[in-house]
Every structure is written in C-alpha cells, then in structure tokens.
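Q: Could you fold this chain for me?
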Amino acid sequence: MYKVLRNFLFLFDAELIHEFSVKFIKVFFSIPLTTKIIRRLFIVNHSSLEKKLFGLKFKNPVGLAAGFDKNAESYTEFSNFGFGFIEIGTVTPLPQPGNPKKRIFRLVEDKSLINRLGFNNRGVKVIAENLKKRRDIIIGANIGKNFFTENIDAHNDYLKCLIDLNDCVDYFAVNISSPNTKGLRDFHDKKLLKPLLEKLVNKNNDIRNSKPMLLKISPDVNSQQLDAIIQLVIELKIDGVIATNTSISRDGLVSKHKEETGGLSGMKLRDKSNLIISYLRKKLGQDFPIIGVGGIMNAEDALKKIECGADLVQLYTGFIYEGPSLIKRINKLLLDKELNKNYEK
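A: Sure. Below is the predicted structure, expressed as structure tokens.
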C-alpha cells in the first residue's frame, strides 16, 4: 500500500511533499483512536530491544535522523510509528531560510536523495518552545551554526543552542559534517575542531543537569582526519559519535540528478558509512557509543550496521522510500536475532 502512495507522491516536488506529509501526519493523528491503532500496528515492545547508552534508556535502537523534523513540530506524531528516539534539527541560534529552492532531489534508480537545504529552521527560540510538549520518547538536538557566522565565531552559535535547549532535550549532536553550510566541514581539521569541542565540553560540564554530547561526522573524511577525530573524542570525553552524515561523493550513481550539488543519502551511502563505523568500533573499543546512519533501506541493512559496531541506528532516506513499516521490520529482525541468541545459550 505504501509503495502505491509513494509512487504517487514521487510525482511531485520532494520538498513540497515532505512539508505536506509532515502537516498531514499531524492532522491524521488528531483523529480520535488513530494514535492507538497506529501504535498497535507499528510498535514492537520488548525488553530485549532496550538499549542503555550515555545514561539514557532507549526503548529500541531505531531512531529518526536529524533533518526530518527540523523544527521539533511533529516528534510526538512520528513516535507513534515505533521509533526508539528522534533527533530534531539541525537547530541554529537564529532562524534562516536555507539555500534557494529547488534543493531536494530524488535519485529513484539509486534509492537515494541529494539535498542542499542548508540548515533551514525557525531558530532555537521557537524550537525550544516546541519541545515543551509532553512526550515519552528520547529527543536529541542536532545543533549547528548560522550560515553567516564565520568559523572563528562558530562556537558562540553552538553554545547558544547548547544552553537554550539543555532543559528541552535528552542529548546533543554537534553537527560539523553537513556539506550544505559553507566552511562547516573545515571543522574536521583537528586545529579547528579541538577548540570548538573544548569550549562546548567545558560549558556542558558547567551546566547543571547537562546532557550527553555526541559528534556527527562526515563519511568523506580521510584516514588521517578520522584518526585525529578519534583522538579528540577520547581526549575530551565526548559521549558518542554519529556516523555518518551525507556525502559529496557521486561514485556509482546512475540517476539523472546525480550531478546536483548537495549531500547524498540513501542506499549509495550504506557501505561507506559501514566502513567508518567498523573503524570507529575498532579504535574506540566495545563500550563506546556509536549511532550508525546512512543507507538503511531494509531490516538487513540495519542489522549490518549493528554488526559493524553501531549501538543504535537512524533512518532518513529509507523512511521516505520504505515507509513506517521499515521501523517495525527492523525491530522484529533485531528482536528475533536477540531471542535466538539467548535461546542458543
């Protein structure tokens, strides 16, 4: 049924459909009994799916990646599809429109997307207000800098988001890896990244009831950059790493929009992300929290991420292509694997 609906929706502009879908979902869940029915259809509850990381207990390891609910407007509705956690944002201190449209492109033949949104959001003040709604799901805030902020002053933007959202969210994801904000990926250079993270860690340590801080990295880092990031993560006691954001690589693409500028997500990112997750796990040890994201288009892709070393996974493009049933399929597969493992013991 979803595939039929998807084929119809794919006839229209991707960003227009995204905005329509988010609004429709809010209206849909306002219908009496809808929430109860959908939760019964999609949610898989079992103690074997629970994960405890950086002081938080996740009901299951499948999350919604940043970029879908940018302004924290629909996290309650999305939680009804069975996500174990939701990451909102990217949030910047001041509202900004992002890059000029058209800026999202479907690469159907490659089961991928290219976006160059550019941190379009309504700003931290509005988003903090939106996050005051009651909820029973873990919420992470993906934070970044405004497009007009120079890198030398970027720490002020991250600090503003960190301070203003601290009482509203359960963890932070420091986004240095979007390719759609000029100069942002320069922070993968240790000389720039270390002072940024030091300022954030120091402030976070001073905040009462501070929240875990994770670092979201690019899939396009070279081995030298990745080793330097790992060293900093250990040195500064960063709570976790999210691997990975979108890619600027266009290797192996066949779709007509393959040359569009922006970040690539979806199936073509899968193997690249898995390689980085495996490397992180090897270097950071078995207990360090890693969230795997990039190219999860079916339940087996999510299982592979976990086998590579991810503790949790996140969906974005796969959610668009496969619909909410993907969350249930992943959780059922992970649960079956866990129960079979326990039975064999």
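A (continued): Residues 26 and 77 are 6 Å apart (CA to CA).
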